Amino acid sequence: MPLPVINLARMREWERATWAAGQTEAEVIRRVGEKIAERALQLTRAGDPILILAGKGHNGDDARAARKLLRDRRVDVLDVINPEAALPEFLKRSAGVPPAQAGQGGRAALLIDGLFGIGLDRPLDESWKKFMAAVNQSNIPILAVDVPSGLNADTGDPVSQDAAIEAAVTLTVGAPKIGLLAQNAWPFVGRLEVAADVGLVPCPHKSELNWTLPEDFAGFPPRRAAAAHKGSFGHLAAVAGSFGFHGAAVLAARGAQRAQPGLITLFTQEDAYHTIAAQLQSTMVNLWKPETKLFDAASAILIGPGLAAPNLPDEMKSITRRLWRDSKSPVIVDASALDWLAPHVLPKDLIRVVTPHPGEAARMLKTTTQQVQGDRLRAVRNLSQRFGNCWVALKGHQTLVGRSAGLRSDEASSPQEGEIFVNPSGNPHLAQGGSGDVLAGFIAGLLAQPALQTDIGKTLRYAVWQHGAAADKLQMTRTNWVVEDLLGELGNATP
Predict the structure, then answer these.
(1) Residue 293: is it exposed, middle or buried by C-beta count within 10 angstroms (0-12/13-18/19+)?
(2) Whether residues 263 and 154 fall in one domain
(3) Residue 30 domain flag
(4) How far apart are CA 249 and CA 273, in angstroms?
């Protein structure tokens, strides 16, 4: 089931429904403690010191509940009731000076932030501001429980100016809170993760904005029939690569290969042909010509990666617009080709996908990157509406996947609200040239397969999640990975 992104009022309603059903707060706290400990163990190594900062509320109780479960770690708890009194103790412990009873030192490898939860609704005084500043300035990675302390989980702003914990990872409880996804919250939230199964009753709320969970893809893609053949899995036609931009075409083709469609044919420019063809084996490489006929038989069409040379023929751009308007097959447009599209009203049964980064989305909407990032949800809606109710994967931190559901009959200029999903996987090391080309190819390779065209939203979400999960796995094992390494991991993640 979709996991909705909710506000604080709905979170409180959910908690009340849980207590009314007979569940106890103590049991939920215990299970939250298990999730905190599980994540803290992943973020540290055996023998590492961990310092828990626990406030007086339930957020502190959650953090304390993790203590006994942090096996093979040296764990200390600092109860912070009076921040002025606790500050000298924090400075000693964060520097590696243990309390007298501990008998062992060592600078903390991880701080667990359990100071304040979502209930904080008052400005913080100077003593709290100084304490939080010291925590942030320690440069020790921080795992925040539910919400970074001091942050308003509805707005994403600090309750008091410049007074909020800057977490590396925020493990929010139950479901994501809307403010944690806001651009202004990103420096405090870090990587947002969800402890979904903590003993709460099933969420009674629905939302237009939803969080993707790995378990959403259990049993997906469906198992292939034993007697299947190449023709069972489609034929992807890709138009990619130009002089000076051949690598994008190669990466897109290899990304498509990881999706395992039956066949892939890549059409490219004559001055890039030999460079591209020499690097691909199972992908067929041909010269692009205006009279190319494969588009009529292909089960999906990808246009865009590496088409950035200034001398591309005008026919390529006009054919792109024609295919977008008329092709019965799925059409995926990426990179430079996004600028060639024109607004269209399209039949509802056509499958169309655009994969812009924020700068490309801004050009398509004739606005600024700042405005796109300021309201990414609205940008997805407007892109979808403008280009025929197409599907949109708006790339970047917490990639969004979705579309507009059409137009309200009473508001012809307003996009109707439909489900949009936030992708949780991936990390900043995906910010390398070529990673978007790999994703575009992987999406197209999946959508070329007839069996994966029945639920476009799920297929797109799966592609984006796999792409990010591959980067996460690489980051756990090596810090200097490159996009070519991403291809080796793509598609290996399991729910």
Answers:
(1) exposed
(2) no
(3) yes
(4) 10
- The per-residue pLDDT for 417 is 55
Residue given tokens 């049991």 in the structure block: 27
Confidence (pTM):
0.94
CATH number (domain holding residue 361): 3.40.1190.20
Q: At which residue do the structure tokens 């707060």 appear?
A: 25
Q: With contact defined as beta carbons under 8 Å apart, do 435 and 411 qualify?
A: no
CA torsion sign for 377, 382, 385, 388 is negative
Of 205, 238, 266, at which residue does a domain stop? 205
pLDDT for position 161: 87
Same domain, 143 and 239: no
- Are 408 and 324 contained in the same domain? yes
Look at the chain and report how many structural domains it folds into: 2
- Is residue 214 helix, strand or coil? helix
- Cross-strand pairs, 303: 239, 333
- Do the domain assignments include residue 106? yes
Q: How far apart are CA 26 and CA 271, in angstroms?
A: 68
pLDDT grade for 406, boundaries at 50, 70 and 90:
low
pLDDT digits (tens, 9 = 90+) for 265-293: 999 999 999 999 999 999 999 999 998 88
Give the confidence band of 102 by pLDDT, cuts at 50, 70, 90: very low
Cα–Cα distance between 396 and 186 in angstroms, integer?
A: 12
pLDDT tens sequence across 127-171: 999 999 999 999 999 999 999 999 999 999 999 988 999 999 999
Is the model's pLDDT at 114 over the cut of 90?
yes
CATH of the domain at 63: 3.40.50.10260
Residue closest to 353 by CA, chosen among 448, 487, 241: 448
Q: How far apart are CA 416 and CA 414, in angstroms?
A: 6
Residue 416 has pLDDT above 80, yes or no: no
E-assigned strands of 356-396? 391-394
d(CA 393, CA 391): 7
- 143 and 235, same structural domain? no
DSSP 36-86: HHHHHHHHS-TT-EEEEEE-SSHHHHHHHHTGGG-TTSEEEEEE-SSHHHH
Report pLDDT for 121.
85
- In this structure, is residue 213 part of a structural domain? no
Structural domain contains residue 238: yes
Tell whether 153 and 243 lie within a shared domain.
no
What is the percentage of the chain residues whose pLDDT exceeds 90?
89
Tell me whether strands 142-145 and 74-79 are parallel, antiparallel or unpaired: unpaired
Work out the burial of residue 492: count CB atoms within 10 Å of its CB; fewer than 13 is exposed, 13-18 middle, 19 or more buried.
Answer: exposed
Same domain for 395 and 273, yes or no, is: yes
User: What does DSSP assign to residue 450?
Assistant: G
Give the domain range for residue 183.
Answer: 3-205
At 1-54, the pLDDT tens digits run 779 999 999 999 999 999 999 999 999 999 999 999 999 999 999 999 999 999
